[in-house]
Structure formats: C-alpha cells, structure tokens
From TrEMBL:
Catalytic activity, as annotated: epoxyqueuosine(34) in tRNA + AH2 = queuosine(34) in tRNA + A + H2O
A GO cellular component annotation in the UniProt record: cytoplasm
GO biological process, one term: tRNA queuosine(34) biosynthetic process
Organism whose genome encodes this protein: Methylomonas denitrificans
Pathway noted in the entry: tRNA modification; tRNA-queuosine biosynthesis
Lineage: Bacteria, Pseudomonadati, Pseudomonadota, Gammaproteobacteria, Methylococcales
Ligand binding (cob(II)alamin): R55, D133, L157, L168, S215, C240, D241
Active-site residues, record numbering mapped to chain: D133
The EC number(s) this enzyme carries: 1.17.99.6
Chief location: cytoplasm
Domain of life (superkingdom): Bacteria
Name recorded for this polypeptide: Epoxyqueuosine reductase
Length: 348
C-alpha cells in the first residue's frame, strides 16, 4: 500500500495528473473488442485484430505482468471556445487539438521511464514494460479499471474532474500492487456525442464504426475518402474533436501546463490555403516531431483538398486546387477534381 501511494505521488511530481493501478483481468473488454471486430468496424486498422489475445491478456504481451500502472496527462492547449470558432470558419484548417504540438508518445514514454526508475531506486530491479500506443494494449479499458475515468458513449475516457482531454500511458509490472476502485459510468441519458458526430460514426452508445469516423478517414485511411462522406468532413483536415467539444463533462477540463503540447507552426490558426501551399519539404520540416507526419504529404493534400471543396467558392481556392492538378499521386488529383467540381456547383 505504501509503495502504491509513493508511485502516485512520484507520478504527479513527473507531470501526470493522475495515476491508478489495476489488475490484468480484461475479460469484458475482450468481449467488446471481439464484437467490434466482428462487425468490421475497424476498417483498414488490421492491427486491431492482430496479435491474438495479447491485447486483452497483458501477461501474454509481457510475461509476469500482474499489475498495471495507468497514467493520464492533460493536453488541452486552448479553451474549447477557440476550437468551436475554427470549426465555424470554412476557410480555417481544423487539426485535432492533441496534434497541435509535439508528438505525445515520446514525452509520455520518457515520463513513464522516469517513474519506473524511481520505483527501481526505491525497491531495486523489478519486471516492467512501459507503453504509450506502442503495442497491443487496451489502454482505455485498463484506465477505467484503474479508476482514471469511464469509457463514454463516444469510446473516449471521461474523468469527472477533468473531462476527456488527456493522454494515457501504462506500465505493465510484475509487482503485486493493490488495485484502485474502477470508475463508474456517469453518461446517464446524455447522447450529445452521438448527435454531434458529423458523419454519424457513433452508431450506438459505446459503438463507433471507425470506417465513418473523421479521425479514421483523415489519418488511418490510406486511399480515397468515400465520396458520400467528403461533404461531412467540413474543414477537419486531421482528426476530429466534435464529440469531446460537446461533452458536458469537459466543462471541468483544464488547460495543459506542458509546453510541448502548445501549438506549433500556427496550426491552431492556419488557413486551408496556407497549409495546402506547403511543399513536401515544408511539410516534413514543419511536422518534425509531430503526430501529423505519419500521414505523409499526399494524405495531407488529400484532406485539405476535401476541406477546400467544402468551403466557399473563391478564385483563390480554385486557383490553389488547379495549381496542384499535376500532382504525381492519382489519389490527390482525384480529390482535387472532386473539390473543383463541388466549388463549381456540380453534383458530386
């Protein structure tokens, strides 16, 4: 018990807002995952079906694991009202708030390593492995068991005191630590997230069809965005925060104090035309150390072309789109042509 309390204190000293501890029994989450996969809701995310049972049975992933230390860190870089204003401006580029700053993976992993080092300094060597989206881990189910929050109807984790604008990380360990009380669900009859979803990807409470989700379409999907969904993307070019922006529990969310999560390269206020003008060299330079880099320049242009097509029909937008029609990638050209037809008022 004393070690567990020390771990939580050390975690807070390292910048985590909360630390919780759970066992490794994820049977309920395993059933939910299998049902989700059986419906094909994972789309092209084959990694969600890979690795057998390692995702839901921690000891298969890290031998000897009997306890999991779960940590959360706030990342909200600006008041939600600023995000809402961007979504209402068709000329603005909307990037999911988690991706405005530096990639969180390295920062959280370094902090988790420091926490493990503190534990080692206190008790000596022990078996562990730290994760931040780096392996098949059911992080939200684990965090729920550890008392960090409950999984909401939009499938994000919600904390009563902090909303949902936070990252998660885990340390699988062979230490027999006392478990925290799992979080209880406080969504009640609210369905704000289901109603606000621009593509109606939340097909039912706690059921997200990723194939319709804006985050999936703009980040995970490698090919063409389905034509029928393009008009619904609005000006969202990397991810989507609508379900979090509308969640009533996020009135308790606090702005992050982490400088690495602050917006870089004016991504919090850039226009679509500014970002569409980036060359591949500029894209690589300005997304260095950012989660955005993973989609590459071609998908970046694909997403912005769709957003421009959803905006106002201006000479500047048409000129910018036409100027990239010689793009090497057929996929990009196809989305540009769609956008130009839409701006010309044609039936797309």
């Amino acid at each position: 018990m004393e070690l567990a309390q020390s771990i939580k204190q050390w975690g807070e000293e390292l910048g985590f807002q909360q630390i919780g501890i759970s066992d490794t029994n994820l049977n309920d989450a395993e059933r939910h995952l299998q049902q989700w996969l059986n419906k094909g809701f994972n789309g092209e995310m084959q990694y969600m079906a890979a690795h057998g049972l390692k995702r839901s049975r921690p000891a298969l992933l890290q031998e000897g694991t009997c306890s999991i230390i779960s940590a959360r860190m706030d990342y909200l870089p600006e008041p939600p009202a600023a995000s809402q204003r961007l979504l209402e401006d068709p000329a603005a580029a909307f990037v999911s708030r988690y991706a405005l700053g530096r990639d969180y993976h390295k920062l959280l992993r370094n902090r988790l390593q420091k926490l493990a080092d503190k534990i080692s300094a206190e008790i000596g060597p022990f078996g562990y492995r730290a994760f931040v989206d780096s392996a098949p881990v059911l992080e939200k189910a684990i965090a729920e068991k550890a008392g960090l929050g409950w999984i909401g109807k939009h499938s994000n984790l919600i904390n009563r005191q902090a909303g949902s604008w936070f990252f998660l990380g885990e340390i699988y360990t062979d230490l027999p630590l006392p478990n925290d009380q799992p979080a209880s669900n406080h969504c009640g009859q609210c369905r704000a997230c289901l109603d606000i979803c621009p593509t109606q990807a939340i097909v039912g409470p706690y059921q997200v069809d990723a194939r319709r989700c804006v985050s999936y379409l703009t980040i995970e999907l490698h090919g063409s965005i389905p034509v029928e969904l393009r008009p619904l993307l609005g000006n969202r070019i990397y991810g989507c925060d609508d379900c979090q922006l509308v969640c009533p529990w996020n009135r308790f969310a606090k702005l992050s104090a982490e400088s690495d999560f602050k917006p870089r390269h004016r991504l919090d206020q850039a226009t679509l035309l500014e970002l569409f003008a980036w060359t591949e060299t500029e894209f690589l330079q300005k997304t260095e150390g950012s989660a955005i880099r993973r989609i590459g320049h071609q998908r970046w242009l694909r997403n912005i072309a769709v957003a421009l097509g959803n905006g106002k029909s201006t000479d500047a937008a048409k000129t910018a789109l036409a100027g990239r029609l010689s793009n090497d990638a057929e996929m990009v050209r196809e989305h540009i042509q769609w956008a130009l037809r839409k701006l010309d008022g044609m039936n797309v």
